């Protein structure tokens, strides 16, 4: 078993710091792979992260991030619950930076993705993540609620829900009565 970690999501992808805790028997192969693929992060970045961790500032930073992401998820859950369509719901663990927005029957992922893009919101359908003939065929949108800057998160959510409503109206109009 190998434990892998990275500071990319909690600090910045450009920092490029990651780590592995592996059994000693695997160390020679891992080091050889690292040499083959190129050098790791510079020493200054490694020392800065080590100080950040040792001083407990990294822990405080992570707690602050988690609290902010928890608030965003709670806002997303409440906004979807208040949305006019009772068949629209959020699923997935209430942790992390992503969740699924399960779409009402008749509303396609493609329609919502297109409508959201026209409103300046980038989302992907769950089908984009399927490998081959994966069994889950429900229509859902993958919502990354950690990406928008704090000042734009609420607006992005409103635009996404408006995109769903627009896609829903389009599918209703296309369906003969």
TrEMBL record:
InterPro entries: HTH_trans_reg/aminotransferase, PyrdxlP-dep_Trfase, PyrdxlP-dep_Trfase_major. The lineage of its organism: Bacteria, Bacillati, Actinomycetota, Actinomycetes, Micrococcales. PANTHER family: HTH-TYPE TRANSCRIPTIONAL REGULATORY PROTEIN GABR. This is Aminotransferase class I/classII domain-containing protein. It comes from Homoserinibacter gongjuensis. Transmembrane segments: none annotated.
């Amino acid at each position: 078993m190998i434990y892998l970690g990275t500071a990319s999501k909690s600090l910045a992808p450009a920092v490029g710091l990651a780590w592995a805790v592996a059994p000693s028997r695997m160390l020679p192969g891992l080091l050889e792979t690292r040499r083959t693929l190129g050098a790791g992060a510079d020493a200054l970045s490694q020392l800065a992260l080590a100080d950040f961790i040792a001083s407990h500032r990294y822990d405080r930073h992570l707690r602050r991030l988690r609290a902010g992401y928890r608030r965003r998820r709670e806002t997303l859950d409440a906004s979807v619950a208040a949305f006019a369509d009772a068949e629209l719901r959020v699923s997935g663990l209430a942790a992390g930076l992503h969740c699924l927005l399960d779409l009402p029957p008749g509303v396609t992922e493609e329609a919502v993705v297109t409508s959201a893009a026209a409103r300046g919101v980038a989302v992907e359908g769950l089908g984009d993540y399927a490998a081959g003939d994966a069994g889950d065929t429900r229509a859902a949108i993958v919502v990354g609620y950690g990406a928008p800057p704090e000042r734009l998160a609420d607006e992005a959510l409103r635009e996404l829900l408006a995109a769903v409503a627009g896609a829903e109206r389009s599918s209703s109009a296309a369906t003969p009565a």
